[in-house]
Each structure stands twice: as structure tokens, then as C-alpha cells.
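Support reply, case 0932

Customer input (verbatim):
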Amino acid sequence: MARKTGSNGEKTRAAVEEAAIRLIARHGFAAVSMRQIAREVGVQAGALYLYTPDKQSLLFDIMRGHMEHLLASWEAEAPDPATPAVARLERLVRFHIDYHIHRPEKVFISYMELRNLEPDNFAEIERLRRAYEGVLEDILRAGAADGVFHMEDARITTMAMIAMLTGVSTWYRDSGRLQPAAIAAHYVDMAFRLVGGARIAQAAE
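Our regenerated output:
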């Protein structure tokens, strides 16, 4: 995204992106105009082009930023690759739930607005998505090789598990009866059931 220099410019750029996220998540990309985004931010429509070339670029920047931050956040928390697969799977599930549960609008946009990306932008987002999917698939394959996970197709299981985990962002509410940590614990159990494995404490028994 084109950026205007200076702290005020950075604040406005961030406000433009935040407004676009709110509006696109609420109304859909096709229904949102640059004029609406400008009105939400409180600037003239022409001023938006100081911060983004067009609406397509704005959507792409939102989706790319989401995926790059997701990958960087996992990299900062990921256990050593030599860690047993059961421990790595539990860590990834807890991370995924904690990350996605607090970002429902970005998650919604990242999945529902893929169809509105131009081909080159779509290819880049798909590359980032596959990089994250590859993290889980590598864990599942390692667990299968060690005999602790049992599945017929690691790729299909990976996609099914990610869909299950990401779904938390569609129904979680702060006012619900369970806190995020408790929800994550339930998802860990479901993830291990999906791969026919036992969690660390159960395996130790």
C-alpha cells in the first residue's frame, strides 16, 4: 500500500484499513465504495489515494497483512521441530484458536473475499495460506510416521482440521459461557480425535 510519510499519515493509513475491514466484513467487498470508506474515516474520498492506489490494493493489503502476521506470530511461538508431534499439534491448535478468536472480521474477509482478488493477488494469498497449511500438514505427517497419528490422507485431514479450527471465529462471543482457554482445550481434544491420536497426558499413561 502506498504510504504517506509522518506519524499522522501512518495513523490515517491505519484508520483507512480498519474502516475498510469493518465495512467489508459487514457489507461485502463489492458493496463497499471508496467514498464509504472515506466517510467512515472522516476524510475526503480523494485523500484515500494517498494511502492506497485503489480498492483492490486495499483488499489485498488487508489479506496479505493478516496472513503474514499469522505466519510470523506462529514462527515466534512454534516449538523446536524436534519436539514430538503430539506436543506440536497441541501447541498449534491452542495458537490457532487464540489467534483467530479475536480477529473475526479479518478471518471472515480472508476466506470470503478470495473470489474478489485479481489473479496475481489471489496467487500470493494462496501461497501464504499454503505455507500455513503446510505447518499443520508437516506435524500430521510426522505424527503418522511416528505411529501416533492415524489418517488415510494427511492433506485432506489438514484442510478439515483448519476449517474446524477457524470456524471458532464465526460463533465465539465475549459474553459466552466459555473463556477462550476452555474453548481451546475442547478444540485440542477434537483435533486429536480427528487424527486418531492421544494427547500427551493420555499417551504417557
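We compared this against your earlier run and they match. Two observations from our side: Residues 1-5 have pLDDT under 50 and may be disordered. The longest helix spans residues 119-145. Please reopen the case if you see a mismatch on your end.
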